[in-house]
User: Which sequence fits this backbone?
């Protein structure tokens, strides 16, 4: 790092109260990764808007959501607990975490096959046949993603970012190429899951060469299972939007909603609070560092509020230029920008994970998603897409308030 830049970063720490050298070194790669992923996602959305009919895209998003719900059976919470274990030097947990996720992933395959069978018996081959292919690749796509969290735990955001970005670019190239050649739903689903399974396996095997020891601990898998249990309702709540919309309004409504929702999710990723903060917070006593964390919390509003304003003002132009077939998504997109207010609260939320406060995490990761699910079930049938959007915004407000309250009690 340039000496003058290094001095400037050290000077700025007096005002930010943050390790700016750490942020610049690791945050650079994290931001580069997220920018790359955002651009890739943007190109993919552009391709789908241009070449894939709305009903096919809506069914595609429905299958992605259904698969994400079924993937809960593969214990995704282990990824988060693995970060803390690796940060403490327990490199042997990479293999153990992957084996555990692969073992539980077999339940994911069985669940997906059961869902496929249910649709086929009901005569719905549109969803049934693609889900059969999902069942083959889904366990491997999720089990081998542990490589990314291994590098996050080591604080090597450069390697993590390069591997993740390479995975995203290659997989998206396969998907966009498939969309260009055909709008067949089975082909699109196969391109999505097969490419990710193969690429994740490749980078996992590559990462194994950097395992420095075989040390393990007894808490990582246990904590991962707890985090999965806590996050199950949250994952279901996050994916239930498309499921409910598909059943009440059909695939076209899911497509329109997705074009309003996905850009928001990608833009939130541009502020990687949780991924940057967790390794650092895991090394500290969070309860004793509350004052410093609160200081950073309030400063993050300087990022969130301008992001909301800029997004609202530019929405119409962006959709007219790049997604003209989805102009009806603009009003929904604008309201969803209010969820950017979660950005500062993400720091408080990840602090609870770093502190290992299982009870607090159970409260925040179950009560909030349950409230969202109830809101979705009530508002979506009554108000359609507007109901789903309102449920998401209200959930963000409730989640922020819950995280603030639980952090104050540390």
Assistant:
């Amino acid at each position: 790092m340039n000496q003058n830049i290094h001095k400037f970063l050290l000077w700025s720490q007096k005002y930010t109260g943050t390790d700016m050298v750490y942020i610049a070194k690791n945050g650079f790669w994290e931001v580069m990764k997220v920018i790359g992923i955002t651009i890739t996602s943007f190109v993919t959305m552009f391709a789908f808007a241009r070449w894939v009919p709305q009903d096919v895209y809506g069914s595609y998003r429905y299958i992605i959501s259904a698969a994400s719900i079924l993937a809960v059976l593969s214990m995704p919470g282990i990824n988060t607990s693995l970060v803390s274990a690796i940060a403490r030097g327990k490199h042997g947990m990479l293999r153990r975490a992957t084996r555990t996720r692969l073992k539980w992933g077999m339940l994911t395959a069985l669940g997906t096959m059961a869902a496929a069978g249910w649709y086929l018996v009901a005569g719905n081959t549109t969803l049934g046949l693609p889900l059969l292919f999902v069942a083959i690749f889904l366990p491997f796509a999720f089990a081998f993603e542990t490589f990314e969290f291994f590098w996050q735990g080591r604080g090597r955001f450069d390697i993590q970012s390069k591997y993740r970005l390479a995975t995203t670019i290659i997989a998206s190239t396969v998907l966009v190429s498939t969309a260009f050649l055909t709008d067949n739903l089975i082909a699109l689903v196969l391109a999505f899951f097969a490419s990710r399974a193969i690429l994740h396996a490749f980078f996992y095997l590559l990462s194994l060469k950097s395992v420095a020891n075989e040390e393990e601990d007894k808490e990582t898998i246990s904590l991962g299972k707890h985090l999965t249990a806590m996050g199950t309702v949250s994952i279901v709540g996050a994916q239930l939007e498309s499921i409910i919309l598909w059943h009440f309004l059909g695939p076209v409504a899911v497509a329109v909603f997705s074009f309003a929702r996905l850009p928001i999710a990608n833009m939130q990723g541009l502020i990687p609070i949780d991924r940057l903060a967790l390794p650092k917070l895991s090394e500290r006593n969070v309860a004793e560092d509350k004052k410093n964390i609160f200081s950073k919390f309030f400063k993050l509003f300087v990022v969130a509020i301008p992001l909301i304003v800029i997004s609202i003002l530019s929405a119409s132009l962006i959709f007219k230029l790049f997604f003209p077939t989805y102009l009806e998504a603009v009003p929904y997109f604008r309201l969803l920008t209010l969820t950017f207010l979660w950005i500062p609260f993400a720091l408080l939320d990840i602090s609870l994970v770093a502190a290992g406060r299982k009870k607090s995490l159970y409260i925040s990761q179950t009560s909030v998603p349950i409230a969202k699910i109830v809101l979705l079930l009530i508002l979506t049938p009554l108000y359609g897409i507007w109901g789903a959007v309102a449920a998401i915004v209200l959930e963000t407000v409730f989640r922020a308030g819950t995280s603030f309250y639980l952090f104050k009690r540390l």
